[in-house]
Amino acid sequence: MALIGVSCLGSVQAAPPPAAFGVWDRGSSFDPKDYPFLKGLAFNQKWADVEKKPGVFDWSALDDAMDAADKRGQYIYLSLGVGPDAPDWIYGQGVPRVECKDQKFDAWPAYPFYPSKEYKALLERLTAAFGKRIRSYTPEKQARIAFIQVKTGCTGDECAYKGSVIEKKYDLPTKSSAWREFRLWQFDLFTKTFQGVPGQPRISLMFNNVTSDDDESGGKGFDEEWKWVTENVTGGIAIKLAGSARGHHLSGERTMIEAWQHRLIASEAAPLFARSEMDQTWQRAMFAQNLPMSFYWGALTGLQNGQSVWDITSGALESCKEMGFDYSFYFFNRYAGQIDPRTATGAFCALHKGLDAADTKAYPEAKFGKASHKNTERMEKIVATYAKYGAAVDDKNGLTLGQVRQRDTQTGFNDVGWDIWPENYGRFLYQIDADATSIPLWRVGGPITNKSPIYSRFARGFEHATGKDSLYFKLHDGFSQGSAPKVMTMTVVWYDAKAGSTWKLDYDAGKPSMKTALTVTGTGDKQWHHETVTVTDAVLRQGGAKGSDFALVNTDAADDIFSLIEIQRGKPTAPVMLPPTHFKVLDKAPKPPKADKPEKGESPRERKKDKK
Fold it and tell me: What was the pLDDT predicted at 580?
């Protein structure tokens, strides 16, 4: 499903500003002078460390974090761990102490009974002190706060306990009305504290487990929580897109993209943005097969989702330069904040086809077999149809796994999957009739190794024998407005497969026929190349063939191959940063990735998953 082309947008906005969107330092330990792509850092602290004695608050760690963000010119998000991270003295002030058997984490010997009036009173006092401290900062410092994460239970997992409650009167199942009522009470507390103070700027709030997508049990999700949040939180809402940008062709990604993309990009609704983090997935077999490639296509998947903030682990940041995948972070930054087509400075289309076995229209059951996540025979029949174009299955076992186990255990790349994204990745630039005018390609240049260029994973190309000699593209209606000539810079990434092959780039210049901006002749070096051209008379009102703004046109009988098209307003302001196909790391086998330590404030559930 391509992004809906809205020709008349309302007040498209985001809180925090789109300048904050991009790659963040999850461990909060890297200097942006050394890692200039870092947009922000995280502050996570336990209640027990803030209020060691009743009513005595130590905000020195928060002050230091705010100072660091201000000095570095970065954004920051804040969170306080409550529930089991509360100080032990609360149990001497009337809060019922809840203990569990089958306790999953030794660090949490006890939990508060959340709905008790004593606990709520102490949490209300903590939140008021938190808000007071934040409001004591200068307006310039407060503007550095991108959002505050509302944690109601066990860190970001949003459940009350991590074990079986011994005294059943204290049990609070995740879907129980008592737990929901407590969570909504805390939602209201944070909303009033950080968005409802007259004369003070509203600070965006992030929530987890407030949507249907958050329900891992396959139930109805958290629709009541979502209804409350969207009706009451008006200063910016952040959600967590679980698993986004942790890879590509992961089970369930199509459903997630279709659910959230239109709400996060070019939306007329209330300000909404999304965060997801890179966990230990990058160290698993599938991802580490080719780190630059995996990070690049993971970044594209996140951008397709509409993901705003990509939190990166310390180990990945330490390794990114040496191992050649920091390019993906720059690319993500280039487009993460491009949410309004009217003001966006760039658009892109990364050519790709995913073979989604859940799609019974594209792959009828009568021909390919019953549509089921466990039906590997169906998937193998689908991929066999495209085998001549390079499609393959590296790990049959990975075809039937859910996303978490797939990330952990899959050992290679699969070009067919269950509920995977089927179309191109992009932002404000769309291919017209892709399958009717071009062929999809996988593993360009041969099997994927640790030395394969990032673009080799997916591509599209001409097929002269079947009359597929042009790829057509159009921009979002809001990106190119008015019939006046515009200055645009166009970049095309293509694979030089045959000496003497020729192709051209045409564009809509407001004339009866499209105008040629660029002609290219191949040398047959079997390498990927960037071709960039700037034109000053681009009209781009879909006046070309098939209603296109641009077209890649074959000018001989050779079948040229393309991976990426980028459009930038105006002339280039800096040299094009080349991807890691040009990095020296690809001249040798990469070193094993550096091990990640659990990030400060990381969810125990995430750490448990990482150990599976």
Answer: 55
- 396 vs 404, 414, 417, CA distance in Å? 16, 8, 10
Residues lower than pLDDT 70 in the chain: 1-14, 104-106, 212-220, 270, 575-578, 580-612
Distance from C-alpha of 449 to C-alpha of 443, rounded to nearest angstrom:
10
Do the Cβ atoms of 98 and 113 come closer than 8 Å?
Answer: yes
Please tell me the predicted confidence (pLDDT) of residue 214.
57
Q: CA–CA separation, 451 vs 449, rounded Å?
A: 5
CA distances from 285 to 402, 580, 592 (A): 16, 20, 11
Domains of the chain by range and CATH? 18-339 (3.20.20.80), 355-587 (2.60.120.1360)
**Helix, strand, or coil (residue 24):** strand
Tell me the backbone φ, ψ of residue 120, rounded to 5 degrees: -65, -35
Amino acid identity at 92: G
- Chain length of the chain: 612
> Cβ distance 54 to 91 under 8 Å?
no
| Residues 28 and 41 sit within 8 Å (Cβ to Cβ) | yes
Residue whose structure tokens are 């942790």: 246
In order of 54, 123, 138, 153, 179, the CA distances from 81 in angstroms are 17, 11, 25, 8, 17
Q: What are 296's two structure tokens? A: 């690049």
pTM of the model: 0.90
3-state secondary structure 120-187: HHHHHHHHHHHHHHHHCCCHHHHCCEEEEECCCECECCCCCCCCEECCHHHCCCCCCHHHHHHHHHHH
Are 74 and 144 contacting, i.e. CB atoms less than 8 angstroms apart?
yes
